[in-house]
Specification:
The complex is a heterodimer of chains A (279) and B (61).
Chain A lengths: L1 E2 H12 L3 E13 L5 E13 L3 E5 L6 H9 L6 E6 L2 E2 L7 E4 L11 H9 L6 H14 L15 H14 L4 E5 L7 H17 L5 E6 L2 H7 L2 E5 L6 E8 L9 H25 L3
Helix pairs in contact in A: 3-4, 3-5, 4-5, 7-8
Chain B lengths: L18 H16 L3 E8 L2 E12 L2
Antiparallel strand pairs in B: 1-2
Classes of the chains: A alpha/beta (279), B alpha+beta (61).
Chain lengths: 279, 61
């Protein structure tokens, strides 16, 4: 019998390797063209352990994407620290793959060539690139479309190619920013299942950090869901979910977590409205 | 008014539980002791508890 406690112990065992990703007292401010200073992220601290699947959830504009971009090395903190393996992040690196909402595929390359291209940057010898690319296309069940071009694919299939390309490079960390946001409900569900499978099969070797505003998606996929407040973004609450995968949106626990997070978020939005109305 | 069909378990009956039932309850108790706010779900198939799931909530501010 697999119990929640076993699962938590497993997560703790994975965590003993130390934090894979960490942000400490992170602040990010921006100056608008009119000279106002806006705080996007307001003193946020959290860690993601090696092998963990964590979702960052919050209303739009709460700074979750900013945190992800900082961890990806695409943006720099105003103050505070962002660490990978305990070292400050200097810039993007092949150890951290990023999956965006729009799959940035090269339109002039075939599906297979798109995946092969990425492998150049992680020093995979040319002779091995094709085999490895094909293996990952099989993994996302797109091997039959290897020689098609991106414009011949559906949005869901394109995002699957982007996922295959990201994972083919064998990154320690996958950072995903609303990767399924632009997909229809069915394609989204397929990819969620695909991602659960990939994460399970990685057997604790891959760390996933997922930015989403979809409460159901976060509860379905994650070991931990970190919920943020409205802008300026701070941490509101954390849900630690001990249930084996694959999970289903109909699972009692998933539904329960979804309704709890939903209630917290609605309370947050209500408070915001009350403040704006001067009550 | 105990109905024959409805199992009634008072604290005194705990010793009468089968080893499997005791194991399940011990695990539930272990989880409950560690959680301040949260949910525990028992998944039952064919009359047997096949899985214990839990979610714990932490306030961060």
């Amino acid at each position: 019998m697999s119990t929640a406690r076993d699962l938590v112990d497993l997560a703790d065992a994975r965590g003993r390797a130390g934090a894979k990703l960490a942000v400490r007292d992170l602040v990010k401010t921006r100056t608008s063209t009119s000279g106002h200073t806006l705080t996007a992220v307001d003193h946020v601290s959290f860690e993601v352990r090696a092998g963990e699947f964590v979702s960052l959830l919050g209303p739009s504009g709460c700074g979750k994407t900013t945190i992800l971009n900082i961890l990806a090395g695409l943006d720099a903190p105003t103050s505070g620290r962002a660490l990978v393996d305990g070292r400050p992040i200097q810039g993007p690196g092949p150890d951290r793959a990023v999956l965006f909402q729009e799959p940035a595929l090269f339109p002039w390359l075939s599906v297979l060539a798109n995946v092969e291209f990425a492998l150049r940057f992680v020093d995979v010898p040319q002779a091995d690139r094709r085999g490895r690319a094909m293996k990952w296309l099989e993994n996302v069940r797109l091997d039959h479309l290897a020689h098609a071009h991106p414009h011949e694919l559906s949005a869901g299939q394109r995002q699957r190619v982007a996922l295959a390309r990201a994972l083919a490079c064998d990154p320690d960390v996958l950072l995903a920013d609303e990767p399924f946001g632009a997909l229809d409900a069915q394609a989204r569900e397929l990819l969620q299942n695909e991602l659960q499978r990939v994460w399970v099969e990685s057997d604790g070797t891959k760390t996933f950090l997922f930015v989403t505003h979809n409460v159901r998606e976060a509860a379905l996929l994650s070991d931990r869901v970190i919920v943020m407040t409205r802008a300026p973004g701070r941490l509101l609450e954390e849900q630690r979910i001990g249930a084996p995968r694959p999970r289903d949106l109909d699972d009692v626990l998933v539904q329960r977590v979804v309704s709890e997070i939903h209630a917290s978020l609605m309370k947050e939005v209500d408070e915001d409205v009350s403040r704006e109305m001067g009550r | 008014m105990a109905n024959e069909a409805e199992p009634t378990t008072s604290p005194a009956d705990l010793a009468a539980l089968s080893p499997e039932e005791q194991e399940v309850l011990a695990k539930v108790a272990e989880i409950v002791r560690k959680i301040n706010y949260g949910t525990v779900v028992l998944v039952i198939q064919d009359g047997k508890v096949v899985q214990i799931e839990m979610a714990e909530k932490f306030r961060l501010r």
